[in-house]
Specification:
Strand content: 15-25%
Radius of gyration: 14 Å
CATH class: Alpha Beta
Oligomer: single chain
Number of helices: 3
Structural class: alpha/beta
CATH architecture: 3-Layer(aba) Sandwich
Length: 144
């Protein structure tokens, strides 16, 4: 069963929201998990791609933007606005910074929803929360 976790940040800063995504990715990478970061657009994907190179001095998280082709090296985090590649390590955990539910979310092991305190972000998050709840999925909320 898909496990959903909402992370609610106190800040209204999109930059701090994306920085938190980078921290989660670093933690996942160190534990041997590989994630797909679902975005709304190519521009948002590129912003996260750039931030992963600079968010913490000395940190290295292998990553690339997903444009429909799987990477040659499996130990890579993928970022993209396309649906996560199915039946791969990247479809096990999705970090969602988009405004919609991931496609086929019932087939994903874990979805991490990262929300900041911006009203638009919170409202789209509430919509996704209701979708997950109506699907009968367990939801955990973390106030940060």
């Amino acid at each position: 069963m898909t496990e959903i976790s909402f992370y609610l940040l106190r800040t209204e800063s999109a930059h701090e929201r994306y920085s938190y995504v980078c921290k989660l990715l670093e933690k996942a990478f160190r534990s041997g998990r590989f994630c797909y970061i679902l975005t709304d657009s190519e521009q948002q994907s590129r912003l996260l791609d750039d931030l992963l190179w600079s968010f913490r001095p000395g940190s290295f998280i292998p990553h690339q933007i997903y444009e429909g082709q799987l990477p040659n090296w499996q130990h890579t985090m993928l970022i993209g606005h396309l649906s996560a590649p199915t039946a791969t390590v990247w479809s096990n955990t999705i970090i969602n910074v988009s405004s919609h539910c991931p496609e086929n979310f019932l087939q994903v092991e874990r979805i991490l929803e990262i929300l900041d305190n911006n009203e638009t972000v919170k409202n789209t998050g509430r919509t996704r929360y209701r979708q997950y709840k109506s699907a009968g999925l367990p939801i955990t909320t973390h106030n940060l």
